[in-house]
Structure formats: structure tokens, C-alpha cells
Amino acid sequence: MTILLKFIHLAAIALWSGGLIVLPFLFWQRRALTTGPELDRLHRITRLVYVELTSPAAFVAIASGTALIFLQATFVEWFSLKMVLVGIMAMLHVVAGLVMLNLFLPNGHFSRLSGIALMSAYLVVIVAIIWIVLAKPHVDSTLFAPHLFEPGGLARWLHQSFGDTRMPTP
Ligand code: HEM
After folding, report:
1. What's the domain count of the chain?
2. How confident is residue 22, by pLDDT bands cut at 50, 70 and 90?
């Protein structure tokens, strides 16, 4: 079961990451096109990559990863770090969707600098996640957040930082 889930997880991640890396390049191709069939074709291909390949792959990657949480020992620091990076990757995924919303309007454009910046951001975050998962670095959270993995630690931290917190009663 774990092997099958990991296989699904990795296949979905390959599609998700590949789709994200190729999108800035597709966006950049918009610069050479004015209204017409070529622009419509690029629009269709870009939507196909984002809506029908990359987004469903992201959904499967997150769903299979969530299932894996219950099968593997994930209450360790490197996994928390991975989740932070996955959150950033998901936000950068949304950025591509937002770019696409305006890109194919008559005056839409996407500069080479934006393309390089977006593609670099994808590459950095993807490589960082893969490195963390494969190297599983030992991070000793007791050095900077001693209560991070302690039951009730969050409540104590909130209490120390913000004083007495009370639930408003109607
Ligand atoms: C919400 C999203 C995700 C969750 C909940 C999740 C969760 C997990 C879990 C629990 C494992 C098993 C860990 C272990 O071997 O102990 C795993 C494996 C893995 N994950 Fe994720 N993951 C997510 C997204 C990602 C992403 C975005 C990437 C890469 C870009 C990624 C790359 C990997 C790799 C390469 C493995 C295999 C590690 C190994 O077998 O040694 N995951 N994931």
C-alpha cells in the first residue's frame, strides 16, 4: 500500500513540477503574438497544461501525500519544513493561474524577466523540497522552538506571547 501510494505521489509530483516549470515559458511565448488563431492556439495549450494537467496533478500529489502522512513517521522537523515549502509551491501555483487570467486579453504581456523570475522560483522550491525529502536532514527544534512538538505547547506559547486568551461567549 505504501509503495503504491509513494508511486502515485511521485508520479503526480513529476507532472505537477514539470507543468509549473514549463508554464513561464508558455507565458513568455505570448510576446510574439497578436490577436488571431496562433494566439488562440497558445491560449488553449496553456489552459490545457494549467487546468487539465498541472492542477489535477497537484491535487493528486497533495491527496496521496496526505494519505502517506498516516503511513509514515512524519512528526519530525524535516517534514514540517517540507510542508512550509509545499505551501509556498501551492501559492506559486496560484500565481501562474493569476498571470494566465490577464495574459490573453488584447493587451496582455509577460516579460522575459518575469518568466525567468517565476521559473527560478519554481526550480528553487521544487529542488529544495526534493532535497529535504531525500536527505531528511536532522533539525533539532529544541534549539529554537522547544515546545514545537510538545502536546499543548502551542497553547502555552500563545499564552506566553499574548497573555490570557479567552473565547468570546455569546
Ligand atoms: C501536501 C503535500 C504533500 C504531502 C502531505 C506529502 C507527504 C509525503 C509523505 C508523508 C511522504 C513519505 C515520507 C517518508 O518517506 O517518510 C512523502 C514522500 C515524498 N514526497 Fe511528499 N508530500 C507532499 C508534497 C510533495 C511535493 C510537492 C514534493 C516534491 C516537489 C514531494 C516529494 C516527495 C518525495 C520525493 C517523496 C519520496 C521520499 C522517499 O521515499 O524517501 N512531496 N511525501
Report:
1. 1
2. very high
